[in-house]
Design goal:
Strand content: 25-35%
Helix content: under 10%
Number of strands: 31
Shape: globular
CATH topology: Pectate Lyase C-like
Number of domains: 1
CATH class: Mainly Beta
Strand order of the largest sheet: 4-5-8-11-14-17-20-23-26-29-30
Largest sheet: 11 strands, mixed
Length: 363
């Protein structure tokens, strides 16, 4: 594939790229999201440092009511209610139960911050966004106990259940018991950027769900029958994400939603499939890099049954362009502003230890 220059999809993107330097002043969301702390962090020149695509306009805590938390109790209290709040996580917090996240919150990890829940039962999971609105989660390592298919409700490291306007950025999400991050029950307007998904703990067999290797990372839409709640919703942008070691499938697996996967890396060796297209899904995957033979051999999987669907894969490294559809619905092609670059650069950009995917913001 011929190497191309950085491509700008809007005048905003062009101006941004001209002004960006190797070091920028970081705020938890935007220029309006300034709590008085300025964090000089190194960013990739391709990092827009803001929610893009379907996540445009998310403000989270908007820099207001800042608080630093170091314990489960303090984190739970800070995330309650709907009042705007900016929560800084410091050190490591070990949870005994999943924590509900109220609306209008920004959660930011200081350098090296992590949260774990090592339960392998119905108490598993880290953040539950059930009906939450306007949430930002950045720069955190989230550690589950390892895949175990027990059909526990909402036991992912991040569970979006009817959540709207959520931005997850520069996180490392590992070993979710059910999934790493699922988006279900009418959730909508989601952006996931510069985030790494992986499984490092061997899966546990003999769960009640029946799948002995449930290293299934990202489910979008959890039922073919959930038409009333999901139709017209579940719209997500995954940009500069990295699905790597241990991931088996659902990277992502889509029902109903319009899903844009751009400049993302697939370099694991355990994929039964990478991107799954299901009922009424409309997927546009562009300029991604499938760099292992396992990923290349299993980059798409058909779950659509007899229902309509659209999927287009274009400009990716390691796999052929394809355009598949059933029904009369047109192919979703993003028209919102975003920045993309040639697929040949994806692996080097996302694996950069200082500016790539994962919690690389030195705060």
């Amino acid at each position: 594939m011929k190497k191309k220059a950085l491509i700008k999809h809007s005048l905003t993107g062009i101006v941004y790229a001209m002004l960006l330097t190797a070091t920028v002043s970081f705020s938890s969301c935007s220029d309006n999201d300034d709590n008085g702390d300025n964090f000089p962090v190194s960013l990739s020149p391709y990092d827009m440092n803001s929610p893009v695509g379907f996540g445009q306009g998310i403000t989270g805590g908007n820099g207001l009511n800042p608080v630093t938390v170091k314990t489960e109790e303090a984190l739970k209290e800070a995330l309650s209610g709907t009042k705007e709040a900016t929560i800084y996580v410091e050190g490591h917090i070990s949870l005994k139960n999943m924590i509900p996240v109220g609306s209008n919150k920004t959660i930011i990890g200081r350098k090296g911050a992590s949260i774990s829940n090592l339960q392998r039962n119905e108490k598993a999971g880290i953040f539950l966004l059930e009906g939450s609105r306007n949430i930002i989660i950045r720069n955190l390592t989230l550690l589950g106990s390892g895949a175990f298919d027990i059909d526990a409700n909402n036991s992912d490291n991040i569970s979006l259940v009817g959540a709207v306007k959520v931005w997850v950025d520069h996180c490392d999400i590992q070993d979710g018991i059910d999934g790493n991050m699922d988006i279900v029950n009418g959730s909508d307007s989601i952006c996931v950027s510069w985030t790494r998904f992986r499984y490092l703990i061997p899966p546990m067999a003999s769960g009640s769900g029946g799948n002995n290797d449930h290293r299934n990372s990202n489910l979008i839409g959890n039922s073919n029958k959930n038409v009333e709640q999901d139709a017209g919703r579940l719209n997500c942008t995954f940009i500069n994400c990295w699905w790597g070691e241990g991931c088996s499938e659902r990277c992502p697996r889509v029902r109903f939603g319009k899903v844009h996967v751009v400049n993302s890396l697939y370099n694991g060796n355990d994929f039964t499939y990478c991107i799954g297209y299901g009922v009424y899904s409309n997927i546009y995957a562009e300029k991604c890099a499938f760099t292992t033979k396992n990923a290349q051999d299993n980059y798409l999987y058909d779950w659509h049954g007899d229902a309509d669907f659209n999927v287009k894969v274009t400009g990716c490294l390691g796999v052929d362009d394809v355009e598949l559809k059933q029904g009369n619905q047109g192919q979703f092609i993003p028209t919102y502003p975003y920045t993309s670059y040639d697929a040949t650069l994806v692996e080097s950009v996302l694996t950069d230890a200082k500016t790539g995917a994962g919690p690389t913001l030195d705060m």
